Amino acid sequence: AYFLDHSDLCQWWRHIVVFLLHAWIPSCFAQTTPPVRLSPTPTPQTAEGPETLKFRLSGFPRKHNEGRIEVFYKGEWGTICDDDFSLANAHVLCRQLGFVSATGWTHSAKYGKGTGNVPIWLDNVQCSGSERSVSVCKSRGWGNSDCTHDEDAGVICKDERLPGYVDSNVDENKVEEVRLRPVFTIATKRMPVTEGVVEVKNKDGWAQICDNGWTPKNSHVVCGMMGFPHEKKVNKNFYKLYSERQKNHFLVHSVACLGTEVHLAACPLEFNYDNATESCPGGMPAVVSCVPGPLYAQSTVMRKKLKMPSTIRLKGGAKYGEGRVEVLKGSEWGTICDDRWNLLSASVVCRELGFGSAKEALTGARMGQGLGPIHMNEVQCTGHERSLWNCRYKNITAEDCKHTEDASLRCNVPYMGFEKTVRILGGRSRYEGRVEVLYTETNGTLRWGLICGEGWGTEEAMVVCRQLGLGYANHGLQETWYWDSSNVTEMVMSGVKCTGDEMSLSQCQHHRTVNCQKALARFSAGVICSETASDLVLNAPLVQQTTYIEDRPLHMLYCAAEEDCLSKSAAKANWPYGHRRLLRFSSQIHNIGRADFRPKAGRHSWVWHACHGHYHSMDIFTHYDLMSANGTKVAEGHKASFCLEDSDCDEGVSKRYECANFGEQGITVGCWDLYRHDIDCQWIDISDVKPGNYILQVVINPNYEVAESDFTNNAMKCNCKYDGHRIWVHNCHIGDAFSEEAEKKFEKYPGQLNNQIS
User: Fold this and answer.
1) Which are the contacts of 529, defined by CB distance < 8 A and separation ≥ 6?
2) In a 3-state reduction of DSSP, which class is residue 373?
3) Mean pLDDT taken over the chain
4) N or C: where does the chain have the smaller number of CB atoms within 10 Å of the terminal CB?
């Protein structure tokens, strides 16, 4: 047997359980150096008292009482890692933010990652919940962390303030709000405001900035905040006379921006602490004039002069100035990987598109996943570039990124005041209700009125939800008797018809004189809005790979005929003899949005189909058409109705919907519904079609029955040649996947001269 002596025993145990050695064999430690700590043991942090720390909530999407928790320590804002985070930690932090308690907490940067070189101040925080400040909770220590910003913690506080709470985190001289105050009478009535005196808001109200040393770079930053891409020289003579007649309050007497900042508060500022009215010797209030982008230009001439760029676009956003960033390379649109994506790069995109600087640079496909190629990775802009293509970036490889990493953004956009002219009332939440619009009576009085529900649909609801800043449209409702909550009863607008792209209802078509068959208030228009929406898209390559012709005997088509899946001439056929020529293909429909796609109709109205052995929840879900080169329809699919289910899903996503056993129907985010080429009605009956060159078109959700974040990707087209016996299909693509030039070439395609497809 082998026996350990005393020192060997100590050495052995020391590497296993340090605290046991400390408790049982203290004499060992008297003779040796302290043991190496193998994993961090949380230690109390008392260097920074609670009175010297500041806290704030950041990130998106969030309400005022939730968000990524950030701590101001040693002159810099930083985040907290989610390792060992708990509800007790959240309680302490929420109290420091002025709320009574926490209702939850989040991990894995739910509200977005800390941007730039933001430090991670705390890690492995362990509070009991009763501490006065997080600074006295156990942790690794200030600035000591092994985390990345993918692990930034967030808190959800109860929306109730502590009695007598005063926000000590607010810097009295912090510049949080900036505005342009117009002084010309005509300018005060015109939107957007593009020129005026720069004013900043502090605890005492609005104040001016001294223009001594004011530079175009400062103006560039202010215009970016106001939603404008560029600044222009301003005529100061008028403003000089104006300021001499005004009593000014100068809060800031020096600003030194580089021109790349996204907010004036990020520029070096010198504040006035003494007599603020006398602190701009020889100067006057700073005045800025901005150049609006093409969407906000106030004259038709300017709109034509200021063209939108043709090589970059935003997709999937609920309103203008937000969305997934897509760039055109060659003739195909693709996305950008979010590695190193930040506010500087996002601001270059925003200004290029005619908006202001970036408000948020979003990662992780927060505006939905794109399709096709990923063109750029590790984009690094200085902020001075005129185009994203002028920034440094890496070409992508298949191993680098996936569409789950698509970059997106939110830009500063000009304030237009559209939300003041429409409101929704009576719903269970602020996201739903009966629509009321503000109108002017003949005597000049402003009053609220109703919109006739006839013809009201998803496109009109999209505009209302965008106008109110409530996200996407879930439903457009033609009856709102259950939301009768105000004394407004008069119909003041009818025949409203929108494309869905308008900024406000005033830009939509409508009757000059109200003409409403159902003029009672119960038949007025209503909306249900949502922060998220689904986005369906067809797998175009699969259509191309699976298309073929089948001559199917009539005796096998009784069920299909019952569902009206054959062309009209089938009724005159000599049943059960003969056959029908069918163009068959598979449809794989993906939901790449941020909400599940659910049928509009409730379960009570679903229709049982004995042939298929399940219920169908949508009458029209997809159109299948074969068209001539000039767009004339020569044959169409007649699929009576559809059942929606999750056939399969991306890795890590679970199926939620199935057609069998009267199950719930829909398509989950990250899943797809597959209609195989060999199932009934998955075809176009081309028995009467002559040989020639055609376009095969498939359109998902053609009537906009269910709201989506993007309808431009719902159509798929293919060129095809039919020689009377065989069919060749090629160039299958989603409707907005190609450049305008490539799409024109597709539509003007002269046809195949032979059966070889290059």
Assistant:
1) 424, 431, 432, 461, 464, 465, 468, 470, 471, 472, 473, 474
2) coil
3) 84
4) N
Strand partners, 716: 698, 734
Task: Specify the pLDDT at position 33.
Answer: 29
pLDDT at 346: 95
How far is CA 544 from each of CA 73, 524, 595, rounded to the nearest angstrom?
58, 45, 28
Count of residues for the chain? 758
* Nearest-5° Cα angle at 154, 149 to 155: 170
Residue 465 · residue 473 · CB < 8 Å? yes
Question: How far from 96 is each of 88, 100, 119, CA to CA, in Å?
Answer: 13, 9, 20
Q: Is the peptide bond before 599 cis (omega within 30 degrees of 0)?
A: no
Whole-structure pTM value = 0.74
Closest by CA to 216, choosing from 259, 245, 250, 247, is 259
CB-based contact 29:22 (threshold 8 Å): yes
**CA-CA distance, 581 to 575, in Å (whole number)?**
15
Distance (Å, whole) CA 310 – CA 327? 9
Select the highest-mean-pLDDT range: 160-164, 363-367, 468-472. 468-472
Strands 727-734 and 671-675: unpaired
Give the pLDDT confidence of 397-439 residue by residue, as tens digits: 656 788 889 999 999 999 999 999 999 999 999 999 999 999 9
DSSP three-state, residue 70 = strand
**What average pLDDT does this structure show over 339-352?**
94
Please name the residue ranges forming H helices in 133-259.
185-188, 216-226, 236-244
Contact between residue 247 and residue 232 where contact means Cβ atoms under 8 Å apart: no
Tokens representing 128 are 């009991």
C-beta of residue 226 within 8 angstroms of C-beta of residue 414: yes
Hey, what amino acid is at 314?
A: L
The CB density around residue 253, as the number of other CB atoms within 10 Å, is 20
In terms of C-beta density within 10 A (0-12 exposed, 13-18 middle, 19 or more buried), how is residue 629 classed? middle
For 73, residues 6+ apart whose C-beta sits below 8 A from its C-beta are 48, 53, 121, 142
Tell me: pLDDT of 273 over 70.
no
| pLDDT > 70? residue 662 | yes
What dihedral do alpha carbons 131, 61, 668, 671 form, nearest 10°?
A: -100
Mean pLDDT for the stretch of residues 60-86: 88
| Tens-place pLDDT, residues 90-147 | 999 999 998 999 999 998 888 888 876 889 999 999 999 999 999 999 999 999 999 9
SS (H, E, C) 650-712: CCCCCCCCCCHHHCCCCECCCEEEEECCCCCCCEEECCCCCCEEEEEEEEECCCCCCCECCCC
Phi (first) and psi of residue 513, to 5 degrees: -115, 135
d(CA 60, CA 67): 7
Amino acid identity of 334? Answer: G
Q: Is the peptide bond before 285 cis (omega within 30 degrees of 0)?
A: no
Half-sphere exposure of 516 (CA within 13 A, CB side): 25
Instruction: Tell whether the model's pLDDT for residue 169 goes beyond 70.
Output: no
Query: Which residue is it, tokens 């907490």?
Result: 105
Q: What percent of the chain has pLDDT over 70?
A: 86
Res 281: pLDDT: 80
Q: State yes or no: pLDDT of 686 exceeds 90.
A: yes
Centroid of chain to Cα 122: 30
How many CA atoms does the CB half-sphere of 472 hold within 13 Å? 23
- DSSP percent split of the chain into helix, strand, coil, nearest 5: 20, 30, 50
- Integer Cα distance of 178 and 219 in angstroms: 12
